[in-house]
Amino acid sequence: MIEPSGRRERKKAATRQKIADTALSLFLERGYDAVGIREVAAEADVAVTTVFAHFASKEALVFERDQDFEERLTRAVTGRPAHEPLIAALHREVRALVRHCTAEGSAPVRRMIEGSPALREYEESMGLRHAQALAAALAADPHLSRSATACRATARFAIDAYALACRADDPGATVDEVFRMIEAAWEATAP
């Protein structure tokens, strides 16, 4: 995530993080469905309007790094060194993102998400949006010369690799296995 440069931006970022941390703490302590936005706002010592100024919905409080996730994936395509193959860059980035979702202490959050239909639905819609952004980045790269279908499928498979690995007993092996398939499919679509 890019660090805010000005004082105002830093204060906004700090407030956003405080709200997200407070919400997650309350959700884990009392259950996602048992906590309302008003309670989050009161505990974070901000107005309800401030919560909604930073987060579009209650579900977004759980996935507060959503925008960073999408930016990292698209940057793996657009910001990779000229000599680095695309699939290797995506593989590396997805592995790094999986380390975050499987880090020590993440299991309670994963259980909370899995136990809530609203959070699972939000996560799925987020994945679709990330796949669209990643597909657009792939399609925009003139050096890749793949069809729109190949770009969309590759993007979706990369997002699915992340989702599967976050739930797997061996996340690293899962990412590696899926990316071997992605690489084979990507190579098969070469002009």
From TrEMBL:
The entry's DNA-binding region: 36-55
User: HTH tetR-type domain: which residues?
Assistant: 13-73
| Alphabetical UniProt keywords | DNA-binding, Transcription, Transcription regulation
| UniProt xrefs under Pfam families | TetR_N
Q: Which residues form the signal peptide?
A: none
Q: Which InterPro entries match?
A: Homeodomain-like_sf, HTH-type_TetR-like_transc_reg, HTH_TetR
Q: What is this protein called?
A: TetR/AcrR family transcriptional regulator
Q: Which species is listed as the source?
A: Streptomyces goshikiensis
